[in-house]
Design brief:
Elements: E1 8-11, H1 15-26, E2 31-35, E3 48-49, H2 51-59, H3 64-68, E4 70-71, E5 75-78, E6 85-89, E7 107-108, E8 118-119, E9 121-128, E10 133-139, E11 142-148, E12 150-153, H4 160-165, E13 169-188, E14 196-201, E15 205-211, E16 219-226, H5 231-235, H6 238-248, E17 253-271, E18 275-276, E19 279-281, E20 287-288, H7 296-315, H8 325-352, E21 367-368, E22 377-378, E23 392-393, E24 425-430, H9 434-443, E25 452-459, E26 474-478, H10 482-486, E27 495-499, E28 505-509, H11 512-522, E29 540-541, E30 566-567
Parallel strand pairs: 1-2, 1-12, 2-8, 5-14, 12-19, 22-28, 24-25, 25-26, 29-30
Antiparallel strand pairs: 3-7, 4-7, 5-6, 9-10, 10-11, 13-16, 13-17, 14-15, 15-16, 17-20, 18-19, 21-23, 24-27, 27-28
Length: 570
């Protein structure tokens, strides 16, 4: 498609806005991304990146996040008024990498994601219609009218996009949890850069320091709590910050520079929906919560990825606009449960004063799912009426359903994660032999190669003779059985998985008919006009010829090789 100007305006260049931009750009959709701050912010905000987010960065080919990241350090607390160690403790659950879960190192990194951002450009207002969005921008005091087809609000907790959309932001502001945080350069005798150091009592008066190289080799991120003092005054005074830290750490401290500081109060709120018309909200613009659990940045990144691939399909004309409704319906239950989890951790911290208790493995975010979504299909799961939604579960490698995270598997010429990209669906055909996979591959022959890729996974017992299939993009031998184990497939079984561009399992089906139902039904071409069912030939297809099962579904459109097909209505 040829664009005169970018069809998508992204407001806010934090991690969520940048991931939205990268996802769209990798789908060939130009974007304009603006941020009202005149310069990029220096320092760490929301530094913890959990395994599921690392997987998404891998799909986006943003390797810097893994390369620059460091493990979250263990916490070391001290006896009052001394440098005598009281105890060391891990802040996060321990988990070792497996073939199915390769990224388990929770990292601390300030992500610089490559994208051209217009700094010092602010959104003042906007209006939308059926055709697009008209935004009023200002830069250096000069007003600009910008027309876009879509707009994404990634402009933080005080989001002007959310407010002008009229979305509710219900919840609470907690007066029982307040702290001052920021990045500071200092040197302390006896303070190594291996541990996160904690002094004082968290629920009364205390400080913690975690080393960060972002601002210098003497850089630290600090957190100050003090129930007796006015934290607002401390946050407004560099001198008071220095005095407070020095009074709590019983060693010689040499202060260099304060990079940034902010007073934080726990706001626990979320929107009633994630979009209105052609405008969407992601990240803090859609939900805010306690920092306990470190889920904020990660949730925003996952919002953006969920939205990005869907918006790309719609903008390309490959999907009906109704697909965008699933962004809100899939993310609302996830964020609602996330708020419950992080608030529960906050309450425990306030009650016990202990920031070092063991966290739930749910925080890895590997069990987040959308099994409840109306655009997933599972022919192996038993439907249970009234089954409660458990969108924020714990990873269970012995159970796999459509809507779950797709596992990885190595040692097969390439990893499965190496196949998954943000701009196409990946069809995995597990089969005892290539002959068993051929009918299924034939059902996909008409699909546009740019948005559907096909891979055959053969067991180690299959013939190792060189094989090639004109219908498959790649044929992989599962020599060590990792793929069959992760996807719970027997060596003599035929089973098909459709992996969405966001690394979520869209469908688990038996064979060719299931694939057709998913791709040409659930992911139907021209879903709202004719539910046209197109085969790869040179004849016209009348709506009356459409199999009845296709009319039950709507959602992602898979574009076919229409140069070989013409369509007409009766």
């Amino acid at each position: 498609m040829n664009y005169i100007h970018p069809p998508v305006l992204i407001v806010g260049a934090g991690p969520a806005g940048l991931v939205a931009a990268l996802t769209l750009l990798q789908n060939g959709i130009p974007v304009r991304i603006i941020d009202k701050d005149p310069n990029p912010r220096i320092g760490q905000r929301g530094p913890g990146i959990w395994p599921r987010s690392l997987e998404l960065f891998n799909f986006l080919n943003v390797t810097e996040v893994n390369n620059l990241g460091k493990p979250i350090p263990n916490s070391r607390s001290y006896k009052p008024g001394t440098l005598e160690v009281l105890k060391d403790s891990a802040m996060v659950p321990q988990m070792e990498p497996t073939p199915a879960v390769p990224f388990v190192r929770i990292t601390s990194v300030y992500s610089r994601l490559s994208c051209s951002v217009e700094m010092g450009t602010e959104l003042r207002s906007f209006e939308q219609s059926e055709e697009g969005v008209t935004a009023v921008l200002v830069k250096n005091g000069v007003l600009e009218i910008f027309d876009a087809k879509w707009m994404i609000g990634a402009d933080g907790a005080k989001s002007i996009v959310r407010k002008q959309l009229g979305l509710t932001f219900l919840g609470e502001t907690r007066d029982d949890f307040c702290l001052v945080t920021g990045d500071i350069r200092l040197k302390g005798v006896g303070l190594d850069r291996v541990y996160m150091h904690r002094f004082g009592k968290w629920q009364e008066r205390g400080v913690s320091l975690r080393a960060t190289d972002e601002i210098g080799e003497d850089g630290w991120q600090f957190f100050i709590t003090d129930r007796e003092s006015e934290l607002t005054k401390i946050a407004q005074s560099e001198e008071l910050i220095f005095e407070t830290i020095a009074s709590l750490i019983p060693t010689e401290i040499t202060f260099n520079k304060l990079s940034w500081v902010s007073e934080f109060r726990a706001n626990i709120r979320m929107v009633n929906k994630f979009s209105e018309g052609r405008v969407f909200v992601v990240g803090d613009a859609a939900h805010v919560h306690s920092p306990t659990g470190g889920q904020g940045l990660n949730s925003g990144v996952q919002d953006a990825f969920n939205l990005g691939w869907k918006l790309a399909l719609v903008e390309k004309g490959l999907a009906d606009k109704s697909l965008l409704e699933t962004y809100s319906s899939e993310r609302l239950p996830v964020i609602s449960e996330m708020l419950e989890i992080t608030t529960s951790i906050l309450n425990q911290v306030i009650t016990t004063g202990d920031m070092e208790f063991r966290r739930s493995p749910k925080l890895f975010m590997l069990g987040i799912n959308c099994r409840f979504s109306n655009i997933v299909l599972d022919k192996f799961a038993t439907p249970i009426e009234g089954k409660p939604i458990n969108a924020y579960g714990v990873l269970d490698e012995g159970h796999l359903e459509a809507g779950d995270r797709a596992p990885d598997a190595p040692n097969m010429l390439q990893t499965l994660f190496g196949l998954y990209k943000p701009w196409y669906h990946t069809v995995l055909v597990f089969a005892p032999s290539l002959a068993n996979a051929t009918p299924i591959l034939g059902a996909l022959e008409a699909c546009d190669h740019s948005i559907v890729r096909k891979a055959v996974i053969l067991p180690s017992s299959a013939s190792m003779a060189p094989v090639a299939s004109p219908c498959a993009d790649v044929v992989l031998f599962d020599q060590d059985g990792h793929a069959h184990s992760a996807y719970l497939v027997e060596a003599n079984q035929t089973k098909v998985f459709v992996i969405r561009p966001d690394g979520v399992i869209g469908a688990i089906v038996h064979g060719a008919e299931g694939v057709k139902k998913y791709l040409f039904g659930l992911l139907a071409v021209f879903t709202t006009t004719a539910h046209s069912y197109i085969y790869r030939n040179k004849r016209s297809v009348a709506v009356s010829d459409i199999p009845t099962h296709t009319s039950c579904f709507s959602g992602v459109t898979i574009v076919l090789k229409q140069c070989e097909t013409s369509i007409h209505k009766d």
